[in-house]
Amino acid sequence: MSEIGKIFYLKTRIISHLNIAPQHFKMILEAPQIAKEAKPGQFIHVKVSEGINPLLRRPFSIHRVIDKEIEILYKIRGKGTEILSQRKEGELLDIIGPLGNGFPFGEEQNKNILLVAGGIGIAPLIFLAEKLREIKNQKSKIKIIALLGAKTKDFVLCEKELKDLCTEVKISTEDGSYGFKGLVTELLKNSLTPDYSSLTTLYTAGPLLMLQEIKKIANIFKILVFASLEENIACGLGGCLGCVIKTKQGYKRVCKDGPVFNLEEVLWE
User: Fold this and answer.
1) Is there a single domain that holds both residue 85 and residue 118?
2) Which among 198, 192, 203 is positioned nearest to 166, based on CA atoms?
3) Which of 158, 163, 166, 247 makes an SS bond possible with 146, Cβ 3.0 to 4.6 Å?
4) How far apart are CA 210 and CA 72, in angstroms?
5) Which of 99, 130, 157 is the last residue of a domain?
6) Domain residues for 21?
7) What is the CATH number of the domain that holds 148?
8) 80 φ, ψ to 5°?
9) Is the CB of residue 202 less than 8 Å from the CB of residue 220?
């Protein structure tokens, strides 16, 4: 193990590795140093194989922290995650973390909190929901409302966890097999009322088109939005500039300045 500031380079043991839905996996890692320092919205950088193929690490949001263990939730998207899905309990995994800047929270009083996730975008929001629930237990007027979108019922993730943590949970599926029929952004529009305004903070993660639509909706209702952005991350430490995005303050590195950004500041071409 080595440490750079509060970033740790670890050989960590895989405690559990479960296939929880088609092409979706949950992995639990023994990583006490990272568990102690991690904040919602941060990520770890994983060397998925023991060889050099693939060469680059893969980023995974920290899904949950339980005592000395961390969880990641991921979807098979390509060669790297396909290799990771084949790793077994008891094997050692080479990881770096915690990395990036997470979700800002802690100042909520008498506010509505919206958590909006599309598909695997739920990954960073459970850790956040757990922290928000701790605040709610101290300030009972806070409402935590989760909107979770999926293609079909089979791909609805973390519903039970959200119901345990949130005031209300709403589900949408694109084919109507469960909950509201349509996109989660359509569910969001149908759920908002004039009460959701400056007294609302929305936290979200998901595909680009979803985030762009959420930004439009949030501007109408004057809702503050913090989003975890999905980008291809190479070095994970801000050195290679391979994950830059355009913002009102110039170009920012998703791995170092993010992955969480105030969505109002992000400029898409």
Assistant:
1) no
2) 203
3) 166
4) 22
5) 99
6) 2-99
7) 3.40.50.80
8) -65, -50
9) no
pTM beyond 0.85, yes or no:
yes
pLDDT for position 2: 47
**CB-based burial label for 224 (10 Å; 0-12, 13-18, 19+):** middle
Q: What is the CA radius of gyration of the chain?
A: 18
Percent of the chain with pLDDT over 90: 70
Question: What span, in angstroms and rounded, lies between the C-alpha atoms of 122 and 159?
Answer: 10
On whether the CB atoms of residues 263 and 205 are closer than 8 A, the answer is no
Strands 112-118 and 92-99: unpaired
Secondary structure element (H or E) that encloses residue 200, with its range: strand 200-205
**CA proximity to 100, closest of 229, 260, 262:** 260
DSSP state of 129: H
Q: 148 near 157, Cβ under 8 Å?
A: yes
CATH code of residue 54: 2.40.30.10
pLDDT digits (tens, 9 = 90+) for 50-78: 878 788 889 999 999 999 999 999 999 99
pLDDT over 70 (residue 110): no
